[in-house]
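Training component of the fellowship. As part of building independent skills, the fellow (R.M.) carried out the full modelling exercise for a liganded target. The chosen ligand was 5-O-phosphono-beta-D-ribofuranosylamine. The inputs are recorded below so that the supervisory panel can assess the work.
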Amino acid sequence: MARKRVAILISGRGSNMSALIGAAKAPDYPAEIVLVLSNRPDAGGLAVAQAEGIATAVVDHKQFGKDREAFERAVQAQLEAYRIDIVCLAGFMRILTPWIIGRWPDRMLNIHPALLPAFKGLHTHERALADGATEHGATVHVVVPEMDSGPIVAQGKVPVLPGDDAAALAARVLAVEHIIYPLALRLIADGRVRVAGACCTVDGPLSPGEAIYIPA
Ligand code: GRF
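Fellow's submitted model of the complex:
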């Protein structure tokens, strides 16, 4: 089967992007990263992607003022130009409207640094610590119009340890993000994820490397 063509949307350093690029180098990986697009011209991940020989694009949201849909039309034009099959949001710090989300039904993924539905939104690590959480983690989910709310494809958990500050906890969570995002993209690109309402189910047995998958 032809490998799925993936675009990664970033706003910053792009460590999740790098994890996806790394995973996609495996010959049996069912997706290839063909475009990295940033809404910020200064995103560090752009240079990393270029060094990997991946095409990059910048659609600077500031050029579009408050017109979110005009910004999204410019993003969508890039995605179409590169014949993208699947979009991965990876530290992409713009809220998307139903207009563009509706163009990627079950084909747009996001990673969120918390065990959704806990801690939607920003500052998840600080809030987990303030709440006295004993476990924390990350979630890859299908993007729907409501923020941080789509069907969950994969989650990874970490313990919250005594003495943790937000930076220490963020680093522990990030390591898990780098595992579960490539896993989730693999499952989606293989066509093994069935989205049914608020849930996802996975077809076929999970291989050992997929053992951290937690069904929704
Ligand atoms: C990650 O923690 C991701 O979960 C969140 O933003 C951060 C992006 O980090 N959405 P990076 O740019 O992938 O390193």
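The panel noted the following from the submitted structure. The first helix runs from residue 15 to 23. Strands lie at 4-10, 31-38, 55-58, 86-89, 108-112, 135-142, 152-159, 193-196, 199-202.
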